[in-house]
Amino acid sequence: MASAGDFLEALPYCLIRARKEFMWDANYNPADYEENLGRATACEVLARRVIHRAPPDRITAMMSTRFMHREVDGDESEKVSVLEMAIDSHCTIFLSSTEAQDEVVNDIWRGHLVQKHNEEHDIEFVPFREHGREGFWSHLSPSRLAVPRYQNIFRIIVWLLFLLVYSQAVREPLDKINPDYFDFDKWEIALYVLSLSFCCEDVQKVIIYKLLLFVSWRAIGFWHIVSFTTNALLLVAFILRVMGIASTGIDNSQMRLRSFQCLSLVAPLIWMKLIPIFDGYKYVGTMQICIARMLQESGIFFGLLALLGVGFLQGLYALDAADGQNESPYELINVLIQALLQSPNYEWFSASPAGLGLYYLWNVATAVILLNILISLFASAYDDVVEDAAAEYLAYFANKAVDMVRAPDQYLYPAPFNIIELLVAPLEYIVNKGVYGKINDWIMSILFFIPLTTIAIYEAELDPAKNRWVKDWLSHSDEGLADRAEYRDPEVDGDDAANGLKISTVPFAELIKVFPDTTHSSEEMILREVRDLKEQISELKNLIAAKA
């Protein structure tokens, strides 16, 4: 830490930046992979230790201050904090530290640290100015809707509403017996409006922000693909529905049926998306991490399956063509998929011994070899995640909290109200900055009056961090009292006190001195004892020299 001089706040940033460079070297220089991986791990551990030893009043600044570095071509990089860089680099060791979670991530999640846009349209993390002040009006502000905790609650409510609307909209084809019923009903209108708002939100966060920021396919995750597929199916269903309304006769019914079929395909996807909606809870978040890692590891299986599938399909098609009677390739694909799903149709190849033998090989390759490879990959991925589940979840939670506030939105309109933002946004180029801010404040205050009022009441009167009675009501009366002095050195009363009896004759402060120091590793303790021994030997030498 002394080597950082007057730039202690920049030291963790530099270490995580060095870690990123070492990881790049490790991935692109396989011969030195272990060496560079060790260097990267050392940088991450040092960054965590620097934060751990830093003064408490400087930790927030060290974690949230944004820095730039000069790139190889001489250009200056984008501003980023050590917390954001650690999230982008997936530094689980650093992000799972107490300082990162309690001092910064939880403050961002609860809204004690908020984003502020400076004159250069850059984002800075600053303490919430009303934090600690009492009163309802000091917390009634549209900006509080951007707090990740409240965003998450609002998102859960909206998504549950979306599921209700979807469940009602897919019942619409039951009304097709009515020949006069061709137009959109109220549930369909609500469904497609909500779908449009979610689509705009995904485009803004994924394409406009993440892809432009990282310029890499790694910015796209599994749930982004699920969202893209869901939005695409809903868009196709809407187009087919409009085409059906515009047409007449048989075409109307056919388009309406095709629209319903596309809409039905969305059901598994939107129910599956409940997992990332509720991932703020530890159990669901850990489950999602396990699923994502298992799907990531299954890439080897699907790659081998694709290669074998193409090979066997070509071989079976060639054997089928040899007898002069070509079957449809789609039928061959269907037979291969049935075998993969443990329902082989051997009768289909009964007339061709060579084809039957090749089909046997396909079943052996998939059911015996590939599926066992998939099971082993899933087991390995699950063990890797479970072994370090706590750190993985804390890193994921940090990513979730920061991702909600780092998107370049100065005025947050959560879906489905982001459609209104599309109408308000052009005013930014027409009126001045002050007027534009007032317009947004008034619109948001009206639209979100109930949520903002609820947030203000909670922060002013019900927040357990400020109100002891709420904390006592939500928890047991004895929880969190172990650190009090009267519990560390308890005294007896009554007859036992009169007889001079004591619970413990050794004070708590003296008792813990013989306990091992769990804040440092065993190697660190050995080095400390060696240093102490050297100091004692030096003192003895000085005493001997003085007496001589």
Report strand %: under 5%
Rg from alpha-carbon coordinates: 31 Å
Number of strands: 4
Count of domain modules: 5
Question: What is the count of helical runs?
Answer: 25
* Category from helices, strands and their pairing: mainly alpha
Give the spatial strand order of the biggest sheet. Answer: 1-2
The end-to-end distance, rounded to whole angstroms, is 40 Å
Oligomer: single chain
Order of helices and strands: HHHEEHHHEEHHHHHHHHHHHHHHHHHHH
The percent of residues in helical segments reads: 55-70%
- Biggest β-sheet: count, sense, barrel? 2 strands, antiparallel
**Global shape:** globular
Residue-averaged pLDDT:
81
Question: Your description of this structure?
Answer:
- This is Ion transport domain-containing protein.
- Residues 3-140 form the YVC1 N-terminal linker helical domain.
- InterPro entries: LHD_YVC1 (IPR056337), TRP_calcium_channel (IPR052971), YVC1_C (IPR056336).
- Keywords: Membrane, Transmembrane, Transmembrane helix.
- Residues 219-460 form the Calcium channel YVC1-like C-terminal transmembrane domain.
- By secondary structure, the protein is mostly helical.
- The protein has 5 domains: 1-135; 148-278; 298-392; 449-479, no CATH class; 495-547, no CATH class.
- It has 25 helices and 4 strands.
- It has helices at residues 11-28, 33-53, 56-64, 82-88, 92-95, 98-110, 148-169, 186-214, 222-246, 250-265, 267-272, 274-277, 282-297, 299-322, 329-340, 353-387, 389-406, 418-424, 433-447, 449-462, 468-474, 485-488, 495-498, 508-511, 522-547, and strands spanning 66-67, 80-81, 113-117, 123-127.
- The protein has a two-stranded antiparallel sheet. Strands 3-4 form a two-stranded antiparallel sheet.
- A hairpin with a 5-residue loop joins strand 3 (113-117) and strand 4 (123-127).
- The longest helix is centred in the last third of the chain and has 35 residues, at 353-387.
- It is globular.
- The two termini are 40 Å apart.
- The mean pLDDT is 81.
